[in-house]
Amino acid sequence: MEIDPLTHRLVVHGLVDTAIEYTMNDLIRFPTESHIYFMECGANGGMDYKGAQMQGVQFTHGMIHCCEWTGVKLSVLMAEAGVKPSAKWMLAEGADAAAMTRSVPIEKVLDDALIAWSQNGERLRPENGYPLRLVLPGWQANLNVKWLRRLKFGSDPWQTREETSKYTELMPDGKSRQFDWVMGTKSVITGPCPEKPMVGKGFREVTGLAWSGFGAITRVDVSFDGGVNWKRAALQEPVYTKAFTRFRIPWEWNGEMALLQSRAVDDKGHVQPTHEQLLAARGGNAIYNKNSIQTWRVNPNGTVDSVQVS
Ligand SMILES: Nc1nc2c(c(=O)[nH]1)N[C@H]1C(S)=C(S)[C@@H](COP(=O)(O)O)O[C@H]1N2
Ligand SMILES: [Mo]
């Protein structure tokens, strides 16, 4: 797919007097903001819902990134475009062949949504949505529409493919849970992990990442015995809202089998659930938003396996 930045337009319509077309040159003249946010696929970890089967932190937790986005706040663009206050929902559409579209409630749009053209200080790369992308901090990556070409305002959600046949959760009672946008409070130990085994007994710093789509991480506890005892890990500053937060804790390994877990807490009081707790809430058909506690089994020979104990 090729998009010419000179002819690319962002069309804004619905609840504006007449449709407005913004060129990239129009957009980059707006006041800009830069923010560091994580972005996680709603299906990250989904393959482990029925129990641990993926070997490696890239497979269990890899569908995520955290970077700096630069663009204009959607609230600023809406004011300039003169979107009427009766707007309750916004439709965002991409310029890919699928014309991927999602409905976004106006509260999120007005809160912290960005129309971004830069990632980590350089223009977006083609695969990440060049020249323009919707950024909805902390929300399922699927709503962060790449190659953004159209915004439409209205009073109701549009019930697009990605919010009906996909990204809905079949609950045990046969009903589907829809519009489950926020990526929950989550953490994972990234060292040791299957890709980074132990290299002998003795000292090893245990480290990992924590994040929450609800806000900032306030605390991470680490267990070395499968969740029986917990110790508080140190958080690396700066801690930003809806961004990766690194945690670390010293460990003296005696060479015996150990079950490593991490449990994150955020500033809204959310505590990362055990897998059993998540399954009790979501049921066995679930695919999306798997934020349960990961267990790494450190074997006496130093290798590390993904297991489920709680
Ligand atoms: N236009 C458009 N936007 C899209 C998609 C798409 O297929 N088309 N995929 C979504 C999904 S499912 C994910 S997980 C993220 C991936 O973003 P990344 O490539 O920056 O990691 O983009 C989202 N935005
Ligand atoms: Mo995704």
Chain-averaged pLDDT: 97
Give the biggest sheet: 5 strands, mixed
Low-confidence stretches: none
Q: How does the helix and strand content classify structurally?
A: mainly beta
Can you describe what's shown?
The protein is mainly beta and 310 residues long. Helix content is 10%, strand content 36%. It contains five helices and 21 strands. A five-stranded mixed β-sheet has the order 2-1-10-5-6. Strand 11 (169-170) and strand 12 (176-177) form a beta hairpin. The structure holds ligand MTE and molybdenum atom. The site of the ligand Nc1nc2c(c(=O)[nH]1)N[C@H]1C(S)=C(S)[C@@H](COP(=O)(O)O)O[C@H]1N2 has 14 residues, from loops.
SSE diagram, text form:
Blueprint: E1 9-13, E2 20-23, H1 24-27, E3 33-40, H2 57-61, E4 64-73, H3 74-81, E5 89-94, E6 101-105, H4 106-111, E7 114-119, E8 122-123, E9 133-135, E10 148-154, E11 169-170, E12 176-177, E13 186-191, E14 202-211, E15 217-223, E16 231-232, E17 234-235, E18 245-253, E19 258-266, H5 275-282, E20 295-298, E21 304-307
Parallel strand pairs: 1-10
Antiparallel strand pairs: 1-2, 3-4, 4-7, 5-6, 5-10, 7-8, 7-9, 11-12, 13-14, 14-18, 15-16, 15-19, 17-18, 19-20, 20-21
Bound molecules: ligand MTE and molybdenum atom (MO).
